[in-house]
Design a protein that fits this description.
seven-stranded mixed sheet, alpha/beta, 19 helices, 24 strands, disordered N terminus, about 525 residues
């Protein structure tokens, strides 16, 4: 809702903005007017492949296919797509593509969740050290999940693919090429590649040398929220949009989701539980963690940075649902209910603390502040008393503990948190919001933002084409808090104990993780 021209000047109220959220397991596409009201949305799921432990891939074709079907669904809902003036993106980070001179993929895309490059990670660590990595990239270590290490893996294990590779792209770069024919990347997406230098905002030459590549093998670098160009005529016809529509750079999903809930100023804290769990705190300068636990990323606003961590999050609950809750899924199909609501009801019939059942939510390794590519999921404390609802609640609580662990690391840097803005699929669950508030003993705020990541992408696109004077003022006028979840002091002791168990599991299982993985 608009609150006056002083907060944001809107050049036109008849124009539409599209935000495309390219998530890990699903694409969401939403259309907004310039007051931030969502006109319609569509969601399409796609599959991941896990050919080996710690290998996570996808068919590159699924992404453009989902975009085309998404626009078709929107048109079917009566939305006049010819009114679309700009398209922006919210993207899963680090998912990468190896393409030839015609942008034809040479292999499956490699997901951000993939941790195959442990050997390459260890070699880079030994050669350069984590301190140099942190100084130049903002990332605390040469993690096996980062694109640089996986590019080296492809070079060493699939030399025939690497020899034909003309460009290494991230998912946004790949989609933008299909829409505009231009190779472009943005700083906020490049921030965790390890081959981009956060201090210069250029590709980091030592890493290009490691790969035997040059800047020509990577896209041109733009800021988030910049116009790339107009959509190609043939693509405009295929999508049913105006050929005058502008395609704009976006940002990584967790950061742009923070924009979509108004956490766009230094010190504001946002957390998201979707396929990933992510926390973001913007800063107006690069702030390094003396303990080197919290990575520094580039924020979707020019020359703004953020303390940001993420790891596999909501996908743990989806994994449990898909593998152990066929009954609930069948009931949901028959009744029209949400299968996650059926799971949540069982969790809420279970006492806080899940009667001693604890879970580590690391199905694809763990990232900052407790980096361990060998980490796995662990249920601890199983007894005869535990039923399905206990396992569901333990998973939900584990994500609250993971947010708390990140907040502790931020506190060590002098960054205190009073209020948390939540978005993502997890924020749609009042029960889960309350669990997190009780674990954190902090207020959890939910905004009126529908599809926060899509809205953030649309805001950046609107700013790029000149509809909004600033990203901050657009957020101020569009976004408001609609629900607050206050912590229950009576549950503090239960969750303090649960948190201590969580931390002990994390450290005490480290050696077992390596044994399980044959190290």
């Amino acid at each position: 809702m608009l609150r006056g021209a002083a907060e944001r000047k809107v050049k036109s109220m008849g124009k539409l903005l599209v935000g495309i959220d390219l998530g890990t397991t699903a694409l969401k596409i939403a259309v907004f007017d310039t007051a931030g009201k969502m006109q319609g949305s569509a969601t399409l799921e796609y599959e991941l492949y896990t050919p080996k432990p710690y290998f996570v891939e996808s068919d590159p074709a699924v992404y453009m296919d989902a975009i085309e079907k998404g626009f078709e669904k929107l048109a079917g809902k009566g939305i006049d797509l010819m009114e679309v003036v700009a398209i922006g993106f919210s993207c899963q980070s680090e998912t990468m593509f190896f393409v030839d001179e015609n942008c034809k993929p040479l292999r499956n895309s490699i997901s951000w969740m993939d941790n195959r490059a442990v050997e390459q990670s260890e070699r880079l660590t030994a050669k350069y050290g984590d301190e140099l990595c942190y100084e130049h990239t903002g990332q605390v270590s040469w993690g096996a999940n980062w694109p640089m290490t996986k590019a080296l893996w492809v070079k060493e294990n699939e030399p025939e693919v690497f020899a034909k590779t003309k460009k290494i792209l991230l998912i946004e770069d790949f989609i933008i090429w299909h829409l505009t024919g231009r190779y472009v990347a943005d700083c906020a997406m490049l921030t965790s590649t390890l081959y981009w230098d956060i201090t210069t905002k250029k590709y980091w030459q030592p890493m290009l040398d490691e790969l035997g590549m040059t800047e020509d093998n990577f896209p041109e670098i733009l800021e988030p929220g910049e116009v790339v160009g107009t959509v190609l005529p043939e693509m405009a016809q295929k999508l049913g949009i105006s050929p005058a529509a502008k395609v704009c750079t976006g940002a990584m999903d967790n950061a742009i989701g923070a924009v979509g809930v108004g956490a766009c100023r230094p010190g504001m804290f946002s957390e998201s539980i979707g396929s990933t769990l992510a926390v973001c705190v913007p800063t107006d300068k690069i702030v390094y963690d003396p303990n080197r636990q919290m990575p520094v990323h580039y924020y979707p606003i020019k020359d703004t940075y953020m303390m940001h961590t993420f790891t596999s999050g909501g996908i743990c609950l989806r994994w449990f649902r898909d593998n152990f809750c066929q009954y609930e899924m069948t009931c949901a199909d028959m009744t029209g209910d949400d299968s996650y609501d059926l799971l949540t009801k069982q969790a809420m019939q279970t006492p806080p603390g899940a009667e001693g059942l604890s879970f580590l939510p690391h199905l694809s390794g763990s990232l900052a502040p407790d980096i361990n590519p060998h980490a796995t999921g662990v249920f601890m404390g199983i007894t005869m008393v535990h039923k399905k609802g206990h396992f569901i609640r333990a998973i939900m609580e584990s994500l609250g503990y993971l947010v708390r662990r990140n907040m502790d690391a931020l506190a060590d840097m002098g960054l205190e948190v009073d209020e948390i803005r939540a978005f993502g699929g997890g924020s749609k669950s009042p029960a889960w919001n309350q669990i997190k508030a009780d674990i954190l003993q902090k207020t959890i705020c939910v905004t009126n933002s529908k599809e926060a990541a899509c809205l953030g992408a649309a805001i950046l696109a609107g700013y790029a084409v000149g509809i909004f004077d600033s990203i901050e003022s657009a957020c101020d006028s569009m976004i408001e808090v609609v629900a607050r979840y206050e912590p229950d002091p009576a549950k503090r002791a239960i969750y303090d104990r649960g948190y201590e168990i969580y931390k002990r599991m994390q450290t005490d299982c480290a050696g077992l993780f390596e044994m399980v993985n044959g190290q």
